[in-house]
Amino acid sequence: MITSDIAAAIQRADANHTVVRAVGSGTWLHGGPVENDAAATVVKPAGGVIEYAPGDLVMSVHAGTTLEELSAVCAASGQMLAIAPYGAPRSTIGAVVATASAAPLAYEDLTIRDLVLGLTVVTGTGDVVRVGGKVVKNVAGFDLVRLNTGAFGTLGIITEVSVRLHAKPIMDHVVTGTLDDEPQTWVPKLTANRAPLPMLVRLAPGEPAQLFARCTGNEARASALRGIVQSFGARHAFTLGPSDTSNAGEPESPVAVLRHVPEQALVLRARTTPDRGAVLIDAARSAFPDATLLFNPARGSLRITTVNSDPLEHTDARIAALVTSTVPSIPFSVVMEQGASPITPTGALDQSVKRAFDPRGILNRRRPAARVNGAV
Ligand SMILES: Cc1cc2nc3c(=O)[nH]c(=O)nc-3n(C[C@H](O)[C@H](O)[C@H](O)COP(=O)(O)OP(=O)(O)OC[C@H]3O[C@@H](n4cnc5c(N)ncnc54)[C@H](O)[C@@H]3O)c2cc1C
Description:
By secondary structure, this protein is of the alpha+beta class. It folds into 3 domains: 3-168, Uridine Diphospho-n-acetylenolpyruvylglucosamine Reductase, domain 3 (2-Layer Sandwich), CATH 3.30.465.10; 171-198 and 205-256; 261-331, Alpha-Beta Plaits (2-Layer Sandwich). 29% of the residues lie in helices and 27% in strands. It has 11 helices and 18 strands. It has helices at residues 3-16, 67-75, 93-99, 112-115, 144-148, 183-193, 219-235, 254-259, 277-287, 312-326, 348-357; strands spanning 20-22, 41-43, 49-53, 58-62, 79-80, 116-122, 128-132, 157-164, 166-167, 171-179, 199-203, 209-217, 239-247, 265-271, 292-296, 301-307, 333-338, 371-373. The strands form 4 sheets. Strands 13-10-12-11-15-16-14-17-18 form a 9-stranded antiparallel sheet, with helices on one face. Strands 3-4-8-6-7 form a 5-stranded antiparallel sheet. Strands 1-2 form a two-stranded parallel ribbon. Helix 6 packs antiparallel against helix 9 and helix 9 (277-287) runs antiparallel to helix 10. It is globular. Flavin-adenine dinucleotide (FAD) binds next to strand 1, helix 3, strand 8 and strand 17.
């Protein structure tokens, strides 16, 4: 459906008092369930490139374009969208923006918020709003692009997206290595002396912690970054080797492997200040001993992924254990990424923004969120 079809569908839904639900490729609908799916009017944005200016490193596409299609078009000009979020390559760009999906080891640590230049959004009254622009240098004003990025379609259905692209780096290597000590030893070293490049530490049950560092640029820059990681490893007795490298663009690269999330997995994202990461890791390990953890030393964030066959009340109890063992000692927040709605506006300001875009509350209506906040 193109923008005008979606506007008409929303106007009809508004007149008929039904709710509206946006669907991209449908790979992550359980990431944000609406209240009454069966009765919802489903809108599915069309795909396809609207405009591509390789010289300006910008592209405008219909929101239903998959990341796979977008990458194929810009790869022909040696360019790329700088993030590859968790999940499948057939995810649509509209959904990636709507969910502000995170990407493991993203190029230059960029997020989708850094890359979206402009959006076309249809509000809950069926009005078509164009926010931001199609060029990197934009007119100042309220940042409605960022407001709609990560709003899970609750403020408007995204129908068109303009993104900033990057030239594919000549060298794109992931260096991996083993961290033999306990997190209490390596977290402070990694957070205090970290090289200026994307890093993640993977902690799987019964395996030593594994460090991934992405080194990109021309040959000189990438090898200088690798040198920094290796000398850092040598100084702090981490086992890192030049042989443990692979091209980040290849399907078997750690970037591609880290993107995979099992369908039935329970996924939580917890966050503290980076220097307190070891406390968070300990709490996550005791609440979820069978989980695989991904720690980002730059952000202090921890993704907790575990295959979950437990009844919901057991899962809730494990989350409560994580919260109660962590909250008293450090500033901390946790968000349920898979299996519950990540956002429910509750504050007065949130609600008035929601009313301005969707006065009758028909867009992507949410179930209550499983969200606990400490001071972070
Ligand atoms: C098994 C699995 C687990 C994942 N887990 C995570 C995770 O934990 N964290 C993470 O960051 N990413 C996760 N993802 C990433 C996921 O790929 C992205 O969220 C991606 O956006 C999904 O694309 P889709 O087109 O299939 O979206 P869909 O499943 O179709 O929709 C996802 C959500 O976005 C809304 N939406 C879709 N299109 C629009 C639009 N045009 N306008 C407004 N709202 C819209 C939908 O209503 C829905 O709430 C996961 C993916 C998979 C397959």
